[in-house]
Amino acid sequence: MNKYFRVAPAMAAAVLCLAGSGASAQQGASAEAASYPQRPIRLIVPFTPGAFNDTFARAAGKYLAEDLKQPVIVENRPGAGAVIGTDYVAKAPADGYTLLQMPANHSINTSLNAKLPYHPSRDFTFLSLAATSPFVLVVNPDFPAKSVKELIALAKENPGKYTYASTGSGGNAHLMGEMLKTLADIDLLHVPYKGASPALTDVMSGQVDMIFMAYAGVANALNANKVRGIGVTSGKRWAALPDLPTIAESGVPGYEATAWWGFAAPAGLPPGIADKLQQALIKVAQSEPMRAQFEPLGLDMLGTSQAAFIQFVEADTKKWAKTIKDSGISTE
User: Which of 45, 80, 106, 126 keeps 20 to 30 A from 24, CA to CA?
Assistant: First the structure.
């Protein structure tokens, strides 16, 4: 287990209990959860209203409310790369009435920000990983490279000449570009923007050469031939774009990165309540309405156990820690 993500003993014990350690443990968990919930639940989203994380949380909250028979109120607390909202949940009572729509930034912020006001593992009860999605590396249609291999060759011939946009320093798109730079040993110039729309607009106009974007945000531009896809960030070819090769198979072995959406609560959540929430969130993620809404946008709907979510975040944290260290980036 790496130094950036240590599961607290209490959390590990809870996970083992939830995995099933005897009839008495199961009976205790059932009794503890029997009366939960008795009032509305707040779901904290550490992004602004209208952001994709917000859209996803509101859809999930609707179906979670139906399952738990209590309102789920989405509350936006954006800022500092999702740190403000995440910290709010870390310090909330561990009673099951304050949940976090945990974003992929969580595993990045662990290494990018040395002064986090919370501990990224000890201060949370990880409930379920709801969905993942690779990003697509797209270029301006007039960009000379037709593949990732050709891009790497051009970049090696012209260090620092070619540019990639992102939705902000320290975000997924930025780190995906840094991973490509370090693994392929090339020099690309990072151009940060304050949002996806202006960044993509400048790629389409040729002001910037390329960008890593979630399929949901770039699908229309791809279909209209306003940008051209040259690779996906997943470890294997993606069902939504089966003809587009992965970056790993295009001359960058080991390249793999995904965005993800999960749900967590403050540390110390009673195991019975954690189990009830986990089971409800699994049903929500795997429900037909959620699949119908988000799979066309490129999300792989999952709904995992607590243990699987913990393992996923640990691996993701380790991966981004290496990228951040190798690239030497910092937002401080």
Answer: 126
